[in-house]
Amino acid sequence: MDPGNARTRLVLLGTSGGPPYWPGEYRAGIASAVVVGDRYYLVDAGHGVVRQIREAELSPRSNTDMDGPLDTLAGIFLTHLHSDHIVDLNNILTVGLFNGFHHVERIPIWGPGNRGAVPELFGPGKAPKPVNPRNPTPGTKEMLDLMVQTYATDFNDRLFDNRKPAPDQLWEAFDVPVPKQYTKDPNGNPHPAMEPFTFFEDDRIRVSATLVDHAPVFPALAYRFDTDDGSVVFSGDTGPSKNLIKLAQGADVLVHEVIDKSWPESLFPEPRTEAQEGLYRHLIEAHTLIEDVGGIAQQAGVNTLVLSHFAPGNRPDEVWEGAAAGFDGRLVIGHDLDVIGIG
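User: That's the sequence. What structure does it adopt?
Assistant: Structure tokens below.
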């Protein structure tokens, strides 16, 4: 079957890892879609996401001026609140009003809750004053409330002059309800062992989550989407994670981030200072190395491993082929607008 004709399919909208716009290569910011019939669900919202949704023709109105392609968007799920994963969320909610973002019912927007404490200072020295000290780590619901305030001039102009709906008619934001016993110590234990939990279900999908290891970012989440046709799991940004392996057991597709170790080695060649060593360790431990990804997919028992969120995003495909080591299934080296059928 042509994957584009599958009822449930994964669409890689953007596959770039991290904040850099990588020299010599264009990959849009990290974002994916799970399409089920005539609806789609967005996972993360990196740079260029609205244009990529249009290019992927996720709506029958993708080629109309102002009726698509956001008219069939049914939900947004954010893995964590690093800027490269949310930078164009504002575009969906603002300019989206002129790109089909109108719904009979409010769409849900899910993501991590408030971290509860700023990260510990990296390295020696005096701690800086945090940004917005009264609430330095807002979660998804708070972030969306603040975003409405930030763009209030635009929203009110569209409301009064263009007769567009108000934000509270368009979406509702939620913090993913990670059980409280796992969120008590974001600095000391940001990746406690836990069971996956289901937090969202409609007539097309069931979505489950677990904490993954992207310290010091917390909460950092992986998601599993189960449909009548099969299942797809998104690792989010993470180092090797037993929680993720448990979440992904038996899934049809695992979409996993990956980092080429030679890149941080080139940034911080030996001998390294103490500070450089710390940064180097963070890059290779808060992400998953090429040589480790295949073993994770094998332990999870998935059929297909799809690589995305490439760091750096300007390496040729052959660099990433090593991810097949230790994995008996199919490896897909992801590219923007790739489509993978589910089931």
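The chain has a mean pLDDT of 95.
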